[in-house]
Amino acid sequence: MTSSLSSKQTYLLDKLKYYWHSASERISKTPERSLDCAYQSVLKIKAIEDEHFGGKTILTEPVQDSTCFASVLRTDVEKQVTMTKMRLAEFKASCFVLGNLSTKNLGKLKLVEEFLAKYTISEPLANTVNVVGNADAINVETVNDKTAVLPRSIGRTLHKISDEFNPKAEAEYVRKYRNSRAKTKTAVRFIITLIIVPVLTQHFSKQFLISPIVEKTRGTDDSQLFLNYEMKEEALHELQSYEEVLKFENLIHQAPPLSPEVVEDKVKHKASELAKEFHHKSNSAVSNVFADMAALIAFGLVIITSRKEIIVLKSFMDDIVYGLSDSAKAFIIILCTDIFVGFHSPHGWEVIVEGIASHLGIAANKSFIGLFIATFPVVLDTICKYWIFRYLSKISPSAVATLRNMNE
């Protein structure tokens, strides 16, 4: 028996050493592997340029050829450019962490960065945000950039009348429409990316990486069944309810008569099931902590590598928000403030904080929750009032007047 146990331990240790060695080797080769993937993507784009576009940059002009073949080529190029950006970001992050940049990779790195710089300036997004020369010259004109002496509506009306007599008005309208469409597509795609990337990172990292490690690390020790006293109280409450249901059904003869020994056996079986269930919940809560960290890192990487998309998203949101009527602006502001800082908001914040605590396996501290509810909505309300006073009163005074009348 002892020799069998010893052989199993030796086998497990050998397996762990093998997995650790494989993981270490794979991690150490991450910069080289990421740069190779980015380099291969650049070569694919270069091959498409040489074969179908005469060696010219593919995304320099608006789409003139509406054939399915041209659309497929452009879609493939956009996908390869995105893949190159992601792999280059992975290369830089891994080099920063590991610090093992090899000199033999400098040639590939230079080619990839030059190629991305060309496509970063050339793609339709550059026309949308008025790029001149490089990314630092981005100039997205938004509604709140400056405050005019006359109301904006008068200026817009005069500008519209002058455009009617412009012989190039139709071409200008088509150009603005294309830019607006490109801006909308970029903004929506960026919003979806901001949502999907962290969610998928959290889910897959938890399921395939973190949860197996946590389950092997924590084992099946009974002392680690419950992360906090609330879990233990919940398990005891379920066990007591189950035992009371058995006794009640036995008393009213809705079930076959059970002896005390049978009842005790059923309760023991239920306790064993609850132990497994709450051990799994505890493992899941521990895994959530590390999976959420991975999701935050993924979100940060998306933000860091998408500076231009953020500018386009800001311009897109400005067009939507400031394009609303004054009544619609006032209605949305009142709705949001009443939800988050209104009279009934403390109940919602309490549910949110308790849900986050349960997700992370932390006992809900009533004192902390009360302090949070007493301060955080007040801070939000102050920020909202300052924004109304500082920005909205200059951009849309009539919206502020409408908001004041609706509040009264």
From TrEMBL:
<feature type="transmembrane region" description="Helical">
    <location>
        <begin position="186"/>
        <end position="204"/>
    </location>
</feature>
<dbReference type="InterPro" id="IPR004282">
    <property type="entry name" value="CemA"/>
</dbReference>
<feature type="transmembrane region" description="Helical">
    <location>
        <begin position="367"/>
        <end position="388"/>
    </location>
</feature>
<keyword id="KW-0375">Hydrogen ion transport</keyword>
<keyword id="KW-1133">Transmembrane helix</keyword>
<keyword id="KW-0812">Transmembrane</keyword>
<comment type="function">
    <text>Required for H(+) efflux immediately after light irradiation to form a rapid H(+) concentration gradient across the thylakoid membranes. Together with PxcL, contributes to transient H(+) uptake following dark to light transition.</text>
</comment>
<keyword id="KW-0406">Ion transport</keyword>
<dbReference type="GO" id="GO:0015078">
    <property type="term" value="F:proton transmembrane transporter activity"/>
</dbReference>
<keyword id="KW-1003">Cell membrane</keyword>
<keyword id="KW-0813">Transport</keyword>
<comment type="similarity">
    <text>Belongs to the CemA family.</text>
</comment>
<feature type="transmembrane region" description="Helical">
    <location>
        <begin position="285"/>
        <end position="306"/>
    </location>
</feature>
<feature type="transmembrane region" description="Helical">
    <location>
        <begin position="327"/>
        <end position="347"/>
    </location>
</feature>
<keyword id="KW-0472">Membrane</keyword>
<keyword id="KW-0997">Cell inner membrane</keyword>
<dbReference type="Pfam" id="PF03040">
    <property type="entry name" value="CemA"/>
</dbReference>
<protein>
    <recommendedName>
        <fullName>Proton extrusion protein PxcA</fullName>
    </recommendedName>
</protein>
<dbReference type="GO" id="GO:0005886">
    <property type="term" value="C:plasma membrane"/>
</dbReference>
